[in-house]
TrEMBL record:
Keywords noted in UniProt: Cell membrane, Membrane, Transmembrane, Transmembrane helix, Transport
Transmembrane portions of the chain: 30-48, 57-78, 90-109, 121-145, 165-182, 231-253, 262-284, 290-311
GO term, biological process aspect, one: transmembrane transport
Stated name of the protein: Malate permease
Top-rank taxon, per record: Bacteria
Record's keyword annotation contains Phosphoprotein: no
Subcellular location: Membrane
Any one Gene Ontology cellular component term annotated for this protein: membrane
Amino acid sequence: MTHFILIPVCLFAGWLLKRGRILPENSAQVLGSFVIYVSLPSLILANVPSMLLEFSFAYLALMPWFVFGASIVFFYFAGKFLDWTVDTRIAVTLCCGLGNTSFVGLPILRMFYGEEVTNAVLIADQFGTFLCLAIPGFILAVRYLPENEKRKDQRIFKSILKKLLTFPPFLALLFSFSLRLFTIPEEIHSVFKILGETLVPMALFTVGFQLQFPNKDSQKIESETSFGSALLIGLIYKLLFAPILIFLCYFFLKVNPKHIKVAVLEAGMAPMITASIVSLQMGFRPLLSAAFPGIGLLFSIPTLFLFYTLLENFF
């Protein structure tokens, strides 16, 4: 019950403090950096060394790759039918092909299933969502950059790629597997666990602080009529089609039910904030890319509760 209260309180508090100009404008960057460099690596180091590995963890890691691959096909045909520009199609694919599986996914799934779900979420996020953005996500983005922009954006691409490949949680995940060979002293494990517990409130507060929505003036600037259709179709795919697709595939493959639940709910998470930033920096429909995480987060709350209820009744 605590997490049912904690999630909206943290989100609203972050949004309110931003609108009230109580905290500095760069607070989201500072808090986000704490989550990335301290909270999430600590949570990984507290859990992964003692994790019991299961074969069906592979399905969790593959879920984001499958959702992203399906999104390329889905949005290609949707773009053809709705006459989207290439920029629109790539922006929607990057933002809605990947989900917010750590910042939002971890708090929500721990709310539903408790702390024991942490390992499954970390596998899905780091080996799934993170690597999917770092490899096929970047290949797609660079592939469709205009020829006259490719040289200029090489520095941006290299900078982002370097950040991804030196991403502290991913490095912590790799290091944590080597720690499985040793016994970690209880005192050190307790420190990692305490620091890791800061992830949920800090991440939710940061997401709330960053919530932004397109206003009438910004939509006038982005004059293409595809703004509304791209936003709607992108969210329908991410919040409804993707989790249904994963459920049908994984149920057919007879995946462990507890991992089906995690995979389906992670597939239905709101659009990924980091992918949105990549789309913004690469110049693919900036206002549309910026709108997806905030609007998607609000609409994902009822859809996630819907899928959670259906899954609990089904299994």
